[in-house]
Amino acid sequence: MRPNGERWRARYATDPARTRGRLIPEAGSPTRSDFQRDRDRIIHSTAFRRLKHKTQVFVHHEGDHYRTRLTHTLEVSQIGRALARALGLDEDLAEALALSHDLGHTCFGHTGEDALDTCMARHGGFDHNAQALRIVTRLERRYAGFDGLNLAWETLEGLVKHNGPLLTADGHPTPRYAARGIPAAILEYDALNPLDLWSQAGPEAQAASLADDIAYAAHDLDDGLRAGLFEIPELRAVPFLAGLLDEIDRLHPGLEPSRMIHELARRVITRFVEDVIREGGRCIAALDPQRVEDIRNADQPVIVFSPEIAAADAEIMRFLWERMYRHPGVVAVRKKADAIVNDLFAAFTAAPSRMPEEWSAGLDGATEARVARRVADYIAGMTDTYAVLAHRKLYATTPDLHWELPSRGLPLAEP
Questions:
Q1: pLDDT of residue 412
Q2: Hey, which residues does 68 pair with through a beta bridge?
């Protein structure tokens, strides 16, 4: 163990003792590293608490056992820590990045983001990654000395770049941003505190990104099965899953469905995690980085799936897209949620005073773009519950987001 309770780190890990610091200088803590402080600030933020009532796939009130953004985030954090520990990375930074990666998501899951993006089309659009940066650098107002959370450079860099570089080596947007350009919020902050948008993310951000992919693959399968959107035998269409189901049948013949679902999800996580540790270790050994900058300056990320597991992950996501994300019941709820977001945006941009005073203050005489961005910030922060209640205050009728899920008949306890 090191000072402040830090664990061993490899030479290529991000070292909090060598951080590039915070935009607003602060005295160090005698008991916590800078990355531990960042993790704690994220956990205590208002945006983090709101994740409890923000949709993952199903609207939260359809069942107590389906994932919300908060439970998903906690699962990503657990997987990210496991990867960081095995690969000798800084666990606290990996955890901070996992905990913050979904802060910018709106109410109603990706539906809310898509709706806000359409509403904001004339004003730069809406991007949840850019919104997360706005939250931790501007919108959180908790501290006397600064807006946002004043996180360390490495935490902000990983938050923005955990899905890879935003710019090519010659300064052009990468394919993800080629059509619409890099979101203004990211460019504005980068001009103030450059985040090296052209380089790879640090290894802890790479680990957090794969942890997100692993959690999605395993737990959306879990939720979809428990909701009755598809049945266990149908998963055999995915060869990787068929192999896991054969293993479960061999070790536990006649296993009841509820336990079968859990055994499958835990095996997906285990196989994927073990693969990342092996493949990441191989890539790190091949690069032989002497410091974290060597990983940032590499041509490719080093924390990756093997080609075999990358293919399995893609097959699982194709199955989920067809059978879960585009399920008629899910699509029907998405359309209703889309209507709620569009209605709220129209109402608040037409009359900003309908928003609470802390959100409407200072908008008298403001430009259309400034009003729209303030409204988008307000709606993006809403939980599913709050958005529905806000709509009911403004409109005579509000879409009903409930839908009947087939009963799975899964026992929760012994008869």
A1: 47
A2: 55
Tell me the sheet residues that pair with 173: 167
* Half-sphere exposure (Cβ direction) of 28: Cα atoms closer than 13 Å: 13
Contacts of 350 (CB under 8 A, 6+ apart): none
Backbone angles phi, psi at 146, to 5 degrees: -165, 160
Let me know: does 287 contact 302? Beta carbons within 8 Å.
yes
- CA–CA distance, 273 with 217 (Å, rounded to integer): 12
The position carrying tokens 């953004």 is 69
3-state secondary structure of 140: coil
pTM: 0.93
Burial 204-238 (b: 16+ CB within 10 A, else e): bbbbbbbbbbbbbbbbbbbbbbbbebbeeeebeeb
- CA of 8: how far to CAs of 16, 70, 287, in Å? 12, 29, 21
Helical axes 239-251 vs 257-287, angle rounded to 10° = 120
Q: Which residues lie below 8 Å from residue 159, measured CB to CB, with a gap of 6+?
A: 97, 100, 101, 129, 132, 133, 136, 151, 205
pLDDT value at residue 21: 96
Q: Which two tokens stand for residue 314?
A: 């893609």
First to last CA, the chain: 48
**Measured between alpha carbons, how far is 377 from 371 in angstroms, rounded to an integer?**
10
Residue ranges in the chain modelled with pLDDT below 70: 1-6, 58-65, 404-415
Tens of pLDDT, residues 209-234: 999 999 999 999 998 998 889 999 99
Judge whether 59 and 384 are in contact, CB under 8 Å: yes
Distance CA 284, CA 296 (A): 12
> Which parts of 89-163 are beta strand (E)?
none
> Hey, is 22 helix, strand or coil?
strand
Determine the 3-state secondary structure of 193 from DSSP: coil
Give the phi and the psi of residue 150 in degrees, each rounded to 5.
50, 55
Report the run of H or E that residue 150 belongs to, with start and end.
none
pLDDT of residue 3: 58
Residue-wise DSSP of 23-85: SS--PPPSSS-HHHHHHHHHHTSHHHHHGGGSBSSS-GGG-TTS-BHHHHHHHHHHHHHHHHH
Q: Where are the beta strands (DSSP E) in 43-195?
A: none
- pLDDT for 401: 87
